[in-house]
Amino acid sequence: MEIMTLLAQYVRTKWLARRFSTREQLEKWQDRQVKALLNRILPVSPFYLKRMGALSKAEWRKLAPIDKKLMMEHFDELNTRRIAKEEAFRLALQAENTRDFTPQLKGVTVGLSSGTSGNRGLFLVGPKEQAKWAGTIMAKMLPGPLWSEQRIAFFLRANSNLYTAVDRRRIQFAFFDLQNSLAEHVERLNRYQPTVLVAPASMLRMLATAKQQGALRVSPIKVISVAEVLDPLDQAYIQDSFAQLVHQVYQCTEGLLAVTCEHGTLHVNEDIVVMEKEYLDEQKERFFPILTDFSRETQPIIRYRLNDILTERRTPCPCGSVFMALEAIEGRSDDLFWFRHGHENEERWISIFPDFIRRAVMVASAKIEEYTVRQLGAEQVEVALLVNGQHSEQEVQEEVRQSLAAVIRSYGAVVPAIHFVPYQPHSGAKKLRRVERVFAFDEQKGRD
């Protein structure tokens, strides 16, 4: 670990947060950072050198966006350390099977990400980038100053050298493997007594239940949700159980994208990434982000189109930051629900954002404790509800059916068959998706 790099990044992150008073200042500074990055990586990344073509570095925003498929297809010539994709996959899969995440390739940390969409991806992080990541996350998310004593409990599907980089003398780090049982986690947490609890929303929900039942006896001073969409229903439940605001870290294979401020507002980390917006609606609220991360050099991320659906916050945050604020991370474009148009003489399809499906369930009844909604096909939706035991499940199901039908009908779409199945508790080993489309849909062809 490059401790001086970590400390320098910690100080820099704290300073940059206060440096910019206008968006114009920030954007000019970002532009300089990206051009400096291009100067460093173009000589060692054949993929980006060819992609730039005749464009000057000042025209970097004119680059056609790439996606995960293209990045993985050109992985060998995209990364700057000449690391072969097959070799990286072999090491990452070996780590998954042995649960030993310490091996590196050429001094580079290799990680495997399934992503919310289920498509496998690789990420590479060099030692200097690892130290910078640690400095950034500590500056943005640690409660108290760097020299305060903290015990961090980190729940993830897979550990990484990236995460253990924050393990310093006064800052202890403990990895909790999501594949282990809840009983094991509760026993170990009671012994560890974390001051910071970091976990996917589904695991935080299970721990919150254990706390309410008296089995979990911890009182962290900060609770952070990662890796999954934080549903408002889960957020309220977790906050009530721990008597703490639930913070979020929005991170994926493509980078550390956003974290919450002290007011709970999710701000894009515009001190390390440029987030351009490809709007999805006429109101210009929802968008796909196009990312350029000027902190990544081993695996450069330049104009990378992510298929997460984000909603921009319109009202200023009380913290006063000029960094872009997000209202919500709705999910993947893969989770847009598609229904046939209601007009029998018109053969077209209607899309509905996951957030509208989510809200339809939540407003239907206050008696719902947990839920999932899965679109199995254009004419079939499956709903699972966990209803407070004091209330009639059939009544709540009918309320949800009517609420979902009303939303779908309001878009002019044909209401599908909506059937109910028993709710299955989430195991924690896989990402929880409360709203999910599970059939393939080709928007261009207009059929499933």
TrEMBL record:
<protein>
    <recommendedName>
        <fullName>Adenylate cyclase</fullName>
    </recommendedName>
</protein>
<dbReference type="InterPro" id="IPR012685">
    <property type="entry name" value="CHP02304_F390_synth-rel"/>
</dbReference>
<dbReference type="InterPro" id="IPR053158">
    <property type="entry name" value="CapK_Type1_Caps_Biosynth"/>
</dbReference>
<dbReference type="InterPro" id="IPR042099">
    <property type="entry name" value="ANL_N_sf"/>
</dbReference>
